[in-house]
Amino acid sequence: MTSEPHHNHLLIIEDNKGRREFILDSPVYSIGRDPKCDIRLVSQFVSRRHATLVQLPNEDGSYYYRIVDGNLKGKPSANGLLINGRKLQAHDLQDEDKIVFGPQVYAIYYLLKRDAISTVPPDEFDITLISPNMVGEPED
């Protein structure tokens, strides 16, 4: 049984309320000033529905997130998105991407890779810290 890589998707938000972390695992997130948004941004410079995160599948069975300006109905935000210094309508997020929503309001996306814990018993090449000659009868 082989272990498959697992990914943790993390979004760190910095706004007028301070720094907050969001572990992403849902199919869709709304981001904006509206209290009903999944990820609320506290700033007068941010649109009520500023952006949307959408989970999309990779070929290997894992998934990634695409950030889209505005809401899912196609209404863009007032200020748009600045991703890694470029104004974009949509972007497939990569590790350490910086998304600027407005003055002093930004997010950094992290893709944390970790290996699944294997439940297979160790094989004969497993390293041991006890040498065989240490496990004998004590000598007088």
Topology:
Layout: E1 5-15, E2 18-24, E3 28-32, E4 39-40, E5 51-57, E6 63-69, E7 81-83, E8 86-88, E9 90-92, E10 97-102, E11 105-115
Structure in words:
The model has no long low-confidence stretch (mean pLDDT 86). The protein has a single domain (5-115), classed as Tumour Suppressor Smad4, CATH 2.60.200. A hairpin with a 2-residue loop joins strand 7 (81-83) and strand 8 (86-88). The strands form 2 sheets. The protein has a 6-stranded antiparallel sheet with strand order 2-1-11-10-7-8, with no helix packed on it. Strands 4-3-5-6-9 form a 5-stranded mixed sheet, with no helix packed on it. The protein has no helices and 11 strands. It is globular. The chain starts with a strand and ends in a 25-residue tail after the last strand. The chain has 140 residues and is mainly beta.
Which labels suit this protein?
140 residues; mainly beta; Tumour Suppressor Smad4; 6-stranded antiparallel beta sheet; 5-stranded mixed beta sheet; 11 strands; globular
The description of the largest β-sheet is: 6 strands, antiparallel
Number of strands: 11
CATH class: Mainly Beta
- The largest sheet has its strands arranged as 2-1-11-10-7-8
Please mark out the parts with pLDDT under 50 across 5 or more consecutive residues, or reply none.
none
Rg value: 23 Å
Distance between the termini: 47 Å
* Arithmetic mean of pLDDT: 86
Tally the structural domains: 1
**Shape annotation:** globular
